[in-house]
Amino acid sequence: MSPDPMSIVVLRFGLAIVIIGLGAFAYWLVNQRLLLRARNNISTLFKAFPNKPVLVYFTTPDCAPCKTIQRPAINRVSHLLAGELEVVEIDATERPDLAKAWGVMSVPTTFVLDTRGEARYVNNGVARAEKLLEQIQTL
Amino acid sequence: MASQALQKVDHSVLKSHQIIIILLNIVAFILNQPLLAVFVALVMGTGWLLKVPGFGFVYKYILKPRGWMKPDVLNDHPEPHRFAQFLGFIFMTAGSVALFAGASVLGWSLVWLVAALAALNAFGGFCVGCAVYYWLGQFHLPGFNKQPPAGTFPGMKPKVGASR
Q1: Subunit contact A12:B31, Cβ cutoff 8 A
Q2: Whole-angstrom Cα distance, residue A83 to residue A62?
Q3: Chain A residues closer than 8 Å to B152 by CB
Q4: What is the ipTM of this complex?
């Protein structure tokens, strides 16, 4: 007896869901790995962690969006949080070792660290001031 | 030496093209319709020949006019994206041939591979075909003479205002 065509479609649909789920899980794992790398490399930036949120900002001298969008956004956030946020700017061309250790593939890249030095968010590409503020406020 | 001047590339066209490929490939698998895989391969091949994203017409005539997707114009090289579409066409064609030859597992695996790479590009901003293009460029092969936009990892989506 041949299987019901509808049940085959349902079976294949279920298989598709599993494959998509595995793909989404792999993507999530990659992001988690990036955050883990950042957590493991906190000591490369600080001897004593400042007891406040930290924004680690990777840039390069020839990065146009860093100058036109990311830097002003960070300045705005720093101004709004007035002393409640530590910003660490890293020139990836001067410190390729740090960029490699933190898994940075493009600039700008920003990491948001909580008061205990745990990397909580990573933004690959430009992160607007509103987004950074929202991330910092949820720490 | 080839010009490295960047052009305006609307990444929303590319994204919609990739999403349609993903959807059609998944539907082809669920309904077990190799002909749909052939259709995707043909559209990708035609797009490569015409130097446009194969399913770009959906964005141009439906998604953009209705405001369902907004333009995302970035300074970028179109050539790596064309090469990526060509690679997708080759994989889809190989998958279709395998399906009609009775090698279902191989055929559907290739179809899923194309869908996965399209998803990586659409949602992760990383174009594997473009990365292959830039990698081949290191060997000074004819036709592979563009370099990634400044500050951009080969294959990653360029950031706003990238220049070279």
Answers
A1: yes
A2: 29
A3: 106
A4: 0.76
Q: What are phi and psi of A36, to 5 degrees?
A: -65, -40
- HEC states along chain B? CCCCCCEEEEHHHHHHHHHHHHHHHHHHHHCCCHHHHHHHHHHHHHHHHHCCCCCHHHHHHHHCCCCCCCCCEEEECHHHHHHHHHHHHHHHHHHHHHHHCCCHHHHHHHHHHHHHHHHHHHHHCECHHHHHHHHHHCCCCCCCCCCCCCCCCCCECCCCCCCC
CA B113 – CA B111 distance, rounded (Å): 5
In the numeric block, the tokens 């079976």 are attached to A11
Domain ranges of chain B: 8-67+76-126
pLDDT digits (tens, 9 = 90+) for B58-87: 999 999 999 998 888 888 999 999 999 999
Is A63 in contact with B31 (Cβ distance < 8 A)?
Answer: no
Q: Rounded to a whole number, what is the distance in Å from the CA of A108 to chain B's nearest CA? A: 8
Model-level pTM greater than 0.90?
A: no
Per-residue pLDDT of chain A (139 residues; tens, 9 = 90+): 677 888 999 999 999 999 999 988 987 887 788 888 888 888 888 877 788 999 999 998 877 678 888 999 999 999 999 889 999 999 988 998 898 888 887 778 899 999 988 899 988 777 889 999 999 999 8
Using CA coordinates, name the residue in chain B closest to A6: B31
Its domain, for residue A102, covers 40-137
How many structural domains does chain A have? 1
CA distance A108 to A58: 6
- Which chain B residues are within 8 Å of A66, Cβ to Cβ? 151
Q: Does any domain span residue A28? A: no
Instruction: For residue A132, give the CATH number of its domain.
Output: 3.40.30.10
In a domain, A1, yes or no: no
pLDDT digit string (tens) for B136-150?
999 989 999 999 887
